[in-house]
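thought: fold this chain, then report.
action: predict
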Amino acid sequence: MNEEGDQRPVRMEIARRLLAQAPPNRVGEYTYSNAGYIIVGAAMERITGQSWEQLMNDEIFEPLGMEACGFGGAARPGSMDQPWAHRRGRQGENAPVDPSGIDDNPRSLGPAGTVHCSMDAWKSFLDAHVGHGPIGYLSARVLDDLHAPYPESGSGYGGGWLTLERPWGDGRVLSHSGSNTMNYATAWIAPEINAGLMVATNVAYDGINADLDAIIQALIISYIHDR
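observation:
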């Protein structure tokens, strides 16, 4: 499929093919799937007539003042303007991925995660999820709906967030991790204390989640000490 230009026809075709298949689970069961996000993105494009990328810009980036955001790899071809993504080799070496090649997921997978942004922009996104977004942007009811776990998940997962109970967050905290197999990012937010923590790296490998969680744990200890 063509990955250049307008991705709406590509995403619609992916959605058609996915929906033509039998569901992988019975009704009432839950399995995480990137395909689900692509289908939702295609539906949004069909309903609004706008691309998912334009909707992201109009509904999230601009209202939240998220600058330095885009889609696909962050670095431009032939440039060192942003850290390059890396792959971990068999011997444990980190090999840089030239941005003139394939340094991210296919663009058609956008709704499942092809956004790149600065740490400041990411912070603005997390701020909105702890209730510090622009006045009137998200109501308390909408935030509750976004953060509510799916009952059928059985794991506290819902709306992209894993809900957990942690003493340092005075109860409910939410976490999300994501990777395109070349970068990795983890975020934790604690709405009850209006706090958030985020860590990102430009390499992904087996065990990276545990390594970033260790960094998050150190930040939590530091936060508790200073609180």
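thought: worth noting. The radius of gyration is 18 Å.
final: tokens above.
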